[in-house]
Amino acid sequence: MNCWLEKPGSTRPGRRGRSLVRILACGALIALLLSACAAPAGTQPAANAQQTAPGETGKPTRTPFPTRRPPAGTRTPTVDPSAQPTEGATQVAGTGTPGAPASGTAAAGAVTLTFGGALNVRRGPGLAYDTVAAFETGQTVAAKAQDGKGEWLQVEVPNSTGVFGWVYSKAPTVNVSGDPLSLPDATFTDAVPAYVRNCTSHQISLRPGEIVLEPLAQQPANRQQVNPGFYEVVDLTLNAASVTTMSVTEGSELIVTQDGNGVNYTCPR
After folding, report:
1. CA distances from 191 to 31, 122, 127, 188 (A)
2. Which residues sit opposite 213 in a β-bridge?
3. Single pTM value for the model
4. CATH number for the 112-182 domain, one of 2.40.30.70, 3.40.1640.10, 3.40.630.30, 2.30.30.40?
5. Is the pLDDT of residue 45 over 50?
6. Which DSSP letter does residue 244 get?
């Protein structure tokens, strides 16, 4: 191959010089032809950059956005596990909220009572305890504890800060918001029994409750344990003639010594 190109009028170099120039020119020409005729291994034309796998639609695959990391110095918030529904959590009908509390329930400390009528507050959880106060219609109070059954609830006595008593949550005049059983159990002492004894020769009854006290001659049936409260004494022998009224408190024992005719009796010790 003769790679030397001569120009008209040019002076040809010597034999040795011509050989060196010819070799350099041929090498440069060969390198240029090779770069133009073949692409480097591993490269593909731009038109074939998007490939499809068998069974796909041929739509170009979108490159996902890079995951953004929080700025330096920030903390990724974590979710409180206790606030998440657990396996087997119930779902309230109509709400679509898994793990939501049942209707009418609430967390501990969120049980409130609204009174639609007057209701006594007692010293302990039961009718055998003294009455210490009363709630009036329209009043609301938060319950602090319960009796272990959720029936009697411990509340702060109205107009007596720091003094606590008990109300019956099942009373028809009470509207309870929340679950009483979510409240802690409270400790309490037993009620002190109260009694009424009939020392007349007539059959006596206490109202309300229709508690019958037999005549003195039929003792011990003439003595009955009663709950604290106000009672009307009536003479059943005289067609329920009213005799008197009495107030019974814990630990007391009251004696009926007068019948419906106004006759007074002496009660043996």
Report:
1. 114, 11, 9, 9
2. 204
3. 0.57
4. 2.30.30.40
5. no
6. E
